[in-house]
Each structure stands twice: as C-alpha cells, then as structure tokens.
Amino acid sequence: MCPSMKAASEKRTSVEKAPGKTKATIKDVAKLAGVSFKTVSRVINKEASVGPELQEKVMQAVKALNYQPNLSARLLRGAASSIGFIYDNPNSNYVIDMQRGILGECRRQGYELVIHPCDSKAPDIIDEVLNMVDRSQVGGLVLTPPMSEMPEVLSALGKRKIPFVRILSGSQAPDKKSPCIFIDDRTAAYKITQYLIDLGHKAIAFLGGEEAHKSSGERLEGYKAALKANKISMDKKLILPGEYSFESGVKRTRQLLASNLKPTAVFACNDEIAAGTLFAARIQGVDVPQQLSIVGFEDSPFSRQAWPNLTTAQQPNTTIAERATALLIESIRKDGRDVDSEGFYPQLIVRDSTCPAPSKR
User: What are the HTH lacI-type domain coordinates in residue numbering (predicted)?
Assistant: First the structure.
C-alpha cells in the first residue's frame, strides 16, 4: 500500500471510530478528503466550480465512508431534494422506461423521485399539477406528452417559476421557455415510409396514435411527405386515427382487412399498435410479412417479443429520460441559465416483419 493510501486508510479508521458516530456526516467526508465541508457540498451538488482532481478526491471519501446526503437538511435550506415525473400515457412500456431513466439519474445526483400519473383532459389539471408541486415540494418537473405540449400547463408553471423540462416531438426546440428533449419523429417516419416504398409497397396504411400527442401528427406528416416525394397518391381511407394501444391496433387492422383497400404494408405509430396489427392479421389468416408487412415505432419490448420480430424505429426512452432529468437538475442548479436543449433521432431497425411487396416478388 502506497503511503498516501495508507494515510487515507488510517484517517478513515479514525473518522469511522469516532465516539458517538452512527452515520458519516459531511464534516467527516471533508476531514477525510482534507477539504472544507463547503467544497464537499459543491461536489455533491455537481457545481462546476470544483476542479476534476478535487472532485475525485471528495468522491473517494464519500465512497469510503458510505456517506448519504441528508435530504431533509437540504429541504430545510430551501434546496431541491426531489424531482416530479408527471405523465398521461396508456403505453406501459413507455412509462416504465421513463421511470427507469429518471430514477437512475435522480439516484446518481442524490434526488428522490415523485411519480404522478394524471388525466391531461381533466378540467382541473392545472390545479392538480400545482397542488402536487406544493404538497410534494419537488424542485422541478419532468413532463412527457401530452403534458409537455400543453401551453396552458407550461404557462401556469412559468408563472409560478417552477422549473421543468419537456420531452416532446419536433425537429428542434420550439422555444427557450425551458430546456427540452426533442425527438425528430417526422424524419424517422419519412425514413420508415421510404423503406417500405423501396420494398415496392404503394398501398401503405397508417395507424396513428392519440391526436393530443404531437408525435402522432409528426409521424403522419413524415408518412405523407415520403408518399409525395415518390409521387404516390395518398388514399385518406388508409389513414386511420386511434390510440397508442394494442387493442386499437387490433380493431383498426380488422377494419382494414374487412375492407376492399387491401394494403400490402402497415405503418403503425408505435409498437403496441403494430403488435395489435400482427395479432389481427394472424387471426384473419394473413401471412406476415408475405402478404402484409408491418412496421412499428419505439423499439419497445413488443417489437422484440412479437413473432416475427417487428421492424421499427429505435427510440431510446430510458436514455431520453436520463438526459431530460440531467437537464432539469442542471437548470435547477443554474436557476435556468445557459441550459441547452438536446435532440434525439430515432433510427430504423429492420427485422422480420417486412419484406418486398408481392409486385416486387
């Protein structure tokens, strides 16, 4: 053992064996690291004013003493100790991925997580959100669609100066009201539709999600743009609005298969809808992909557990949630100053649920 490590070990032992100590304090960490307790506080709160070498020294002491920040003390000082996650989404896989990502980042940065499902259509939704913030005393909110795309909710939060980060659909940040994670659904949908066209498909059905979710509209616009670019006439009867759910996919696919439209491919707005389409096709004796190619969106477990596995657009929801939470915490610590938004660009993943159109074969 080198002299410096030996000294640190002896120092740690003296701290751990101090009489009356049952739990390491910030002063214990400061003593072991050989710095002031204010420096320890800055490192724990991820302040940029502390150099990397000093940060490493403090974090080694934190780990050695198994130090846990006192969230109650932080709250009494008026500092944020928790983050709120508000959502209204029927897609359980999406919600689970979001929770996993937000919780992981909260734990890394010493925050608690408060989860609040809601009904975005409720007449008192703004009061519900503001009351939740007051009751839980969260330092800021992670908002997902459709809550993140409701101007009245964002305005109410802004008036109360409640920090928030938005996860939303778009090719760029819509404004500078708060940091956001924007997801380029339109370009991804264009690429999906172009991929199907390149396989020879012309009768491509589009199964959308809830209109309240901007992602559904953005994906529809990408679909339309690809048809137009390839001079394929758009048949409005092949565009079926609905919900982001398995049941909605089943219902609309049965409707399609019972009609005279006879699409050779379906672009489903998410993997749950696509899985419902696959199920309905199987019940009707339609071979996938030989008679009907199916594409989903998000790369959720539905896409990998279905057989055949679904071609889809990969949207890393857990990573998106982690980055959104990191942006929110940075915004809280900087009081909203100089926090940039970030973009994600879903990528096409080709699997077994698609193949060339019958005319190409």
Answer: 24-78
Mean pLDDT of the chain: 87
Distance between CA atoms of 142 and 146, rounded to whole angstroms?
A: 12
Residue 227, pLDDT above cutoff 80: yes
Distance in Å from the first CA to the final CA of the chain: 70
Task: Let me know: does 294 contact 307? Beta carbons within 8 Å.
Answer: no
Q: What does the pLDDT look like over 83-106, one tens digit per residue?
A: 999 999 878 889 999 999 999 999
Residues 257, 294: Cα–Cα separation, whole Å:
13
> Are the C-beta atoms of 267 and 192 separated by less than 8 Å?
yes
Based on the domain organization, do 173 and 192 belong to the same domain? no
- 48 pLDDT band, cuts 50/70/90, is low
Tally of domains in the chain: 3
**CATH number of the domain that 197 lies in?**
3.40.50.2300
Q: How many whole angstroms separate alpha carbon 185 and alpha carbon 221?
A: 9
Q: Which residues pair with 27 in a beta bridge?
A: none
9 and 142 housed in the same domain: no
What average pLDDT does the segment 60-89 reach? 71
Asked if residues 204 and 266 have their Cβ atoms less than 8 Å apart, the reply is yes
Domain interval for residue 283: 185-315+348-360
Q: Residue 348, class by beta-carbon neighbours within 10 Å (0-12 exposed, 13-18 middle, 19+ buried)? A: middle
Question: Tell me, what's the pLDDT at 105?
Answer: 95
The dihedrals phi and psi of 344, each to the nearest 5 degrees, come to -125, 145
